[in-house]
Amino acid sequence: MRRPGLALAFSSACGSAVLAGLGCGDALVPSPFTRSAVEPDAGPSEPGTRDAGAAELAPGRVDPSVVYGAPCVDDAQCDDAIDCTLGVCDAELGLCRYTGDDASCDDGVFCNGVERCDLRLGCRPGPPMTCSDSTPCTVDVCDEATRSCVSRERDADGDGDVDANCQPGHDCNDLDPNVSTLATEICNNQIDDDCDGEVDEADCQAPRFDSCADALQISASGSYLVPTGGASLDYGSACSTEVPTLRDLVLQVTVPAGPPQDVDVVARASAGELALAPVASCGSAAAEAECLSGSFVSSGESLARLHQYRLAAGVHSIYLWTTANAPVQLAVNLQPGTAEPANRDCTAAATLVPDQAVTANLAVPGPALSSNCTTDRGDRFYEFTLNEAADVRLSAQSLDDLGQPRISLKSADPRLPLLRMSETRT
Question: In this predicted model, which residue has the larger pLDDT, 60 or 325?
Fold first, then answer.
């Protein structure tokens, strides 16, 4: 039970600050209940008790949003031990009056519905969000990242091609994730991989870049198209979803002789999930690598990004994972080497200076810090100090349109603020 008084509550940066003044009158009137209405010689009820029948003694005053309890003479006797209720002593009736605060039950999760305060049971879960549009050719889900319902065309085998039963001319075998109109015709397998009605036609392809022995060689900045047809999962995955269509490809980036360079790789595909990870030695297990998983962007394509800092001259291997039989477009940029920012945890937060903008590379591996600002990306941490109370305005804007930056304030102490900044995508 929350006592009345001045309440100041701050949500995370996703929400707002609420200042609410709560109070009750201090005028007491005699209880309408005579000694005969309660036990002889009984004093006020003990805190934490409820008299369900007490409200019946006040006909015409019962409000469904209010529960009345035991007799009282002050608010201190109206503690029911339920966190989401506000108990006050109704001076006119001489009864504890309890009201609920649904907002105090909010767990910050959108898709599990709206929590409510039950005046007798406390916080209770609400019904989960229902997103179904009753159309059999769509899959409707609640997306926590955007806090909205998302509808996608049905794709039973997850290969990125709509079921032909829903859209004629699309996936000719929605039980085989390696067969679709997006797939590449693979030679000598006696299967119509690309759903064009022909088997092993002249333009069929053998798998490429599927192993360290046949890696895509990259020696300069530029754009590279990586076919995924026929590729298999050879080296395991450190961060990508394990689905039947998961496959890996190998990239080998050569940093020329000279000073260290940064290597920035952006992978895009029209379908399927993507992930990138550097490996110390091609062919080794990826479990020790820092892995950058991708996400779907607003255009519907998937995107993953890996930024490596100060790579020495030589060959550096990268694993690329995908779950779809669709080509992957790579944008590779070799640039002068820079030191990797250290502000990847709270202990190494970078200092913000008022009116001085900073640029943050948010292609950060690792799990996200728990936050009401839902994201599955790693974080950059910043801090600033206030010598006295002040309003602070913080903003973040994407410079490359590859994601949506989010900011959250982690410290409740206004003298020692701590910020985390991450992206919902890359």
Answer: 325
DSSP letter for each residue of 126-167: PPPP----S-TTEEEEEETTTTEEEEEE--TT-SSS-BTTTS
Whole-angstrom CA distances from 91 to 65, 73, 88, 170, 298 are: 18, 7, 9, 72, 57
Distance CA 304, CA 144 (A): 20
Report how far residue 28's alpha carbon sits from residue 35's, in angstroms, rounded to the nearest whole number: 18
Every domain of the chain and the residues it spans: 6-103, 130-206, 212-336, 341-426
Per-residue model confidence as pLDDT tens digits over 333-371: 999 999 888 888 778 888 888 888 888 877 777 666 666
Dist. CA 372–CA 93, nearest whole Å: 42
Helical residues (DSSP H) of 26-173, grouped into ranges: none
- Beta bridge pairs of residue 331: 223, 266
Q: Which fold has domain 212-336?
A: Jelly Rolls (2.60.120)
Most confident of 24-38, 92-106, 171-185, 402-416: 92-106
Instruction: Tell me the chain's radius of gyration from C-alpha atoms.
Output: 30
